[in-house]
Amino acid sequence: MKLTIAWIGKTKNPAIQSLTDEYLKRLKQYAEVEGVTLKDESGLLKLSGHDGRSPRRRLVMLDSRGKQLSSEELAEFVREHQDMDTPLIFVIGPADGFTEDLRWQADFTVSLGKMTLAHELARVVLLEQVYRAFTILKRHPYHLGH
């Protein structure tokens, strides 16, 4: 499975970068994964293929207005796309959120909950949950300690 985790804006906090790197490393045992820093939304449209110039990937946007999933539901979502060999790109927006135009282009929108999280922290939470999803699918004991 090809999986991309993308975020708009540079990482300012070394602790966030360290956690990002750790979860990307862990995910590599389950999927072909990359982490991508983007300058703006146009870079996201190009990366996801929504600009019509490159192969299209399923765009999964994080937004507080999205659907809240349990860890098991996220695992099922990942499994379905893995079975179909559909490339996924999860994207975390800038600190001020996504534009309405981009929201309409998302294939699926997911929320990490009703609380507001700093966008860099949301990235780490997303990475951990995607990692957890793969451990659930592989019946790895990581998830059992919840």
Give structural notes:
Helix content is 41%, strand content 23%. It has 146 residues and is an alpha/beta fold. Strand 3, helix 3 and strand 4 form a beta-alpha-beta unit. The radius of gyration is 14 Å and the shape is globular. The two termini are 26 Å apart. The mean pLDDT is 91.
Keywords:
globular; single chain; 146 residues; 23% strand; alpha/beta; five-stranded parallel beta sheet
Topology:
Blueprint: E1 2-8, H1 14-27, E2 32-38, H2 41-48, E3 58-68, H3 71-83, E4 88-92, H4 100-105, E5 108-111, H5 119-137
Parallel strand pairs: 1-2, 1-4, 3-4, 3-5
Helix pairs in contact: 1-5, 3-5
Helix fraction by DSSP (H/I, runs of at least 4): 40-55%
Strand content: 15-25%
Main β-sheet, in a few words?
5 strands, parallel
Shape: globular
The number of helical elements comes to 5
Helices and strands, in N-to-C order?
EHEHEHEHEH
Rounded to the nearest angstrom, the radius of gyration is 14 Å
Side-by-side strand order of the widest sheet: 2-1-4-3-5
**Spans where pLDDT lies below 50 across 5 or more residues:** none
Task: Report the count of strand segments.
Answer: 5
End-to-end separation in angstroms reads 26 Å
Structural class: alpha/beta
* Mean pLDDT figure: 91
Brief characterization of the structure:
Helices cover 41% and strands 23% of the residues. The protein has 146 residues and is α/β, with parallel strands linked by helices.
